[in-house]
């Protein structure tokens, strides 16, 4: 065993001494963040096992308080982050690259998009794609038309895009770009705390920074457990409706164990193999399903739905973005506040994951890939799947009671059963759901391992395995408490990270401004060229 100082282009634990094996691979020290997060996760799991009813009531009570108090704060945070991301992308700063000159991206464009999309949506994307426009149609947003009307249906499509489109993905970019900037241009670890360097200085390596990373890990764990729990619940109901699988807590546990086993194996193989391959498979199969539904469904109506969705979204963007509360209505609390809390709770996981896979790309290309491309895909996704669902309900091909009962999974299965080759489609849908679950879970396990290993680019396999089990146990416990507990966990987890997210944005602006005034080694000017006095060629290898 030997101790070395890593080269500046290797950022696992840049600027600090770490242990390496004989092959030069880093062996990160599992310090405060790992121990503290593991203790807190174990305490949560034990608490849920001993007092499940108390856990459920506590999460529900906290959700009520948090939504009432912080709902408008979530709305404001989303707006601030979206505006910052857009301004950075269109400004000369957007040409800056996240890495040293000459560094090429680690992953190709399609692989990169597949990985970030698969990690960022989860299997609820498929269920909500068909169900959400219908749910908004029967319970429309205030001031958008009577329930069941054409106006309400149009509002349902645009609000679905609103909750899953550029606003949501900007939260991911708002974490990914600052973390990647600090990591790959400042040689900091790939950690949330690194993005706060401009505000905290070397304190990011001390206890204050470790507490920031600890809060991020807790947010990741709760956010992922919430999504996996909700997705498992919906998957169980969908499989029951399609294939007669029994519905129950035991069946849900079996689903989690089976899929988490595959995701754990994927996480063990690393980013370039299991995670990348499964993400490519998920993206390819999802795209094929989207094209099939567009062609086999009411194509003419769907073309119109795409125009209605995008046009309505753009025309109503200010009103939707700024709405915080309608007198006498709980719609914003039920939908807007919860969705923004959900996305914020996922931002530390997906944001750091995107940062990890984005070295070598320009800031502008990251914004395009993280905000514009997913926003476009979401518009097509909800227009095609949601438009098909609306058509089937209007024509009585789908039981309207499923809409009234808010049974998203059964509703999705029922809509797909009206298409040609329904049995083949059912199998394809099941595969897409499984892949969406697995690709979210394996990416989360990888980033939990990285975040608790000092930001290691290749976290130890035992640590990844440990976090896979922890996320699965947390999801099982939250499932026992029902959907209210699942939603409560996401809303509560978003509170501390909202403050951190805003601080990250401020720190990023300060880093960029300072760099433009006092260029750091190998920095680029806003036009993409070398800094004044710097050579246009990259630094020698190993410097």
TrEMBL record:
Keywords: Cell membrane, Membrane, Transmembrane, Transmembrane helix, Transport. It comes from the Bacteria. Pfam families: BCCT. InterPro entries: BCCT_transptr. GO terms for molecular function: transmembrane transporter activity. The keyword Chaperone does not apply. The keyword Membrane applies. The chain crosses the membrane at residues 32-51, 71-94, 106-128, 167-184, 211-231, 243-265, 277-297, 337-355, 367-390, 424-444, 465-483, 489-513. One of its GO terms (cellular component) is plasma membrane. It is found in: Cell membrane. Residues 521-543 are annotated as: Disordered. It is a multi-pass membrane protein. Residues 526-536 have a biased composition (Low complexity). Belongs to the BCCT transporter (TC 2.A.15) family. This is Glycine betaine transporter.
């Amino acid at each position: 065993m030997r101790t070395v100082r890593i080269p500046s282009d290797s950022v696992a634990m840049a600027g600090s001494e770490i242990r390496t094996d004989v092959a030069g691979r880093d062996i990160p020290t599992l310090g405060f963040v790992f121990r503290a997060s593991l203790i807190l996760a174990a305490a949560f799991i034990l608490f849920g096992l001993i007092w499940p009813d108390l856990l459920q009531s506590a999460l529900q009570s906290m959700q009520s308080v948090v939504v009432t108090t912080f709902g408008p704060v979530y709305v404001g945070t989303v707006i601030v982050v979206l505006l910052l991301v857009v301004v950075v992308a269109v400004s000369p700063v957007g040409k800056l690259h996240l890495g040293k000159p000459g560094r090429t991206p680690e992953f190709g464009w399609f692989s990169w998009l597949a990985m970030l999309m698969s990690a960022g949506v989860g299997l609820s994307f498929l269920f909500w794609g068909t169900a959400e426009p219908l749910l908004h149609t029967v319970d429309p947003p205030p001031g958008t038309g009577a329930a069941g009307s054409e106006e309400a249906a149009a509002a349902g499509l645009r609000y679905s895009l609103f909750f899953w489109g550029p606003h949501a993905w900007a939260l991911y970019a708002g974490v990914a770009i600052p973390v990647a900037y600090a990591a790959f241009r400042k040689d900091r670890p790939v950690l949330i705390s690194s993005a706060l360097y401009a505000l905290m200085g070397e304190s990011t390596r001390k206890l204050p920074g470790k507490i920031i990373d600890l809060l991020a890990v807790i947010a990741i764990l709760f956010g992922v457990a919430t999504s996996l729990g909700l997705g498992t619940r919906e998957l169980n109901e969908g499989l029951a409706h399609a294939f007669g699988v029994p519905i129950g807590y035991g069946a849900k546990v079996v689903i989690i164990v089976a899929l988490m086993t595959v995701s754990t194996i994927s996480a063990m193989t690393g980013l370039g193999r299991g995670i990348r391959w499964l993400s490519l498979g998920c993206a390819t199969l999802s795209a094929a399903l989207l094209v099939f539904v567009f062609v086999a469904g009411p194509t003419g109506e769907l073309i119109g739905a795409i125009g209605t969705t995008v046009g309505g979204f753009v025309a109503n963007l200010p009103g939707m973005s700024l709405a915080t509360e309608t007198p006498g209505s709980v719609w914003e609390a039920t939908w807007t506040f919860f969705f923004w809390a959900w996305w914020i709770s996922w931002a530390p996981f997906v944001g750091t994951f995107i940062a990890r896979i984005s070295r070598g790309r320009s800031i502008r290309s990251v914004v395009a890939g993280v905000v514009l491309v997913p926003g476009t895909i979401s518009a097509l996704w909800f227009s095609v799947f949601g438009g098909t669902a609306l058509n089937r309900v209007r024509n009585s091909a789908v039981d309207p009671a499923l809409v009234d009962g808010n049974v998203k999974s059964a509703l999705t299965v029922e809509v797909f059963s009206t298409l040609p080759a329904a049995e083949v489609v059912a199998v394809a849908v099941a595969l897409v759901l499984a892949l969406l679950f697995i690709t979210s879970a394996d990416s989360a396990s990888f980033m939990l391992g990285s975040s608790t290993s000092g930001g290691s680019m290749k976290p130890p396999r035992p640590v990844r395995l440990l976090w896979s089990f922890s996320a699965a146990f947390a999801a099982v416990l939250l499932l026992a408490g029902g959907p209210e507990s699942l939603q409560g966990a996401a809303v509560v987890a978003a509170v501390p990270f909202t403050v951190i997210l805003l601080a990250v944005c401020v720190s990023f602006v300060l880093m960029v401004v300072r760099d433009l005034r006092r260029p750091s080694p190998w920095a680029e000017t806003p036009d993409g060229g070398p800094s004044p006095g710097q050579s246009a060629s990259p630094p020698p290898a190993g410097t």
